[in-house]
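Long-time lurker, first post. I've been practising inverse folding by hand and with some scripts of my own, and I keep getting stuck on stretches where the structure tokens seem ambiguous. Below is the full token string for one chain I'm working on. Before anyone asks, I'm not after the true native sequence, just a reasonable design that respects the backbone. If someone could post their per-position residues I'd love to compare against what I wrote down in my notebook.
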């Protein structure tokens, strides 16, 4: 089932999400719906707060970033994962910039600087605790989605001047004054 994506301005996007346990009601169906929702919106990641759930859960499928012949082609092609109760243990390496967007903030893309390497611990869908290291684009996708469960949006990581320049666009999103190609829920819809 395709779920509406919560738009910029909804309080759930600014709250630190809560851990869940194996008995979380309807978890398998929720994860399945999140993947369907993400693919419908042509995203590469989706965090539970983006569908109005304040829980520590996000999914990614970085295969759209895989470029034939690139060093990380194999990793990105197979990088479809569910992260339950994740904890970033360490971020390391040089910061590098890339334009990022967000399904909760349609039509806004800005340069965000992130470290190139991340060490993360999380539970899989089968509740196996794993610890993995990711670099490059894979690390960036994970860091972006992890920020969501920490109540942080990419717009909070951009330069102050850019924040002022996109203030009008953010206000339009919050008021429902935009149309997206996927279902959305606006906090102050007209």
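-- Answer (accepted) --
I ran through it position by position. Result:
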């Amino acid at each position: 089932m395709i779920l509406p994506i919560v738009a910029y301005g909804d309080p759930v996007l600014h709250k630190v999400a809560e851990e869940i346990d194996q008995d979380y009601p309807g978890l398998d169906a929720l994860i399945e719906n999140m993947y369907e929702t993400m693919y419908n919106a042509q995203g590469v990641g989706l965090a539970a707060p983006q569908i109005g759930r304040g829980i520590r859960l996000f999914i990614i499928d970085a295969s759209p970033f895989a470029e034939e012949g690139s060093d990380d082609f194999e990793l990105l092609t197979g990088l479809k994962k569910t992260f339950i109760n994740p904890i970033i243990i360490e971020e390391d390496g040089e910061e590098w910039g890339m334009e990022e967007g967000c399904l909760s903030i349609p039509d806004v893309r800005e340069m965000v600087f992130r470290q190139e390497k991340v060490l993360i611990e999380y539970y899989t869908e089968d509740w196996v605790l794993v610890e993995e290291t990711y670099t490059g684009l894979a690390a960036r996708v994970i860091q972006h989605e992890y920020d969501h469960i920490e109540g942080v949006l990419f717009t909070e990581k951009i330069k102050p001047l850019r924040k002022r320049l996109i203030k009008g666009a953010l206000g339009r999103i919050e008021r429902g004054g935009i149309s997206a190609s996927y279902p959305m829920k606006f906090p102050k819809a007209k």
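A couple of notes from the structure itself: The mean pLDDT is 93. The chain is about 25% helix and 30% strand. Happy to go over any region you disagree with.
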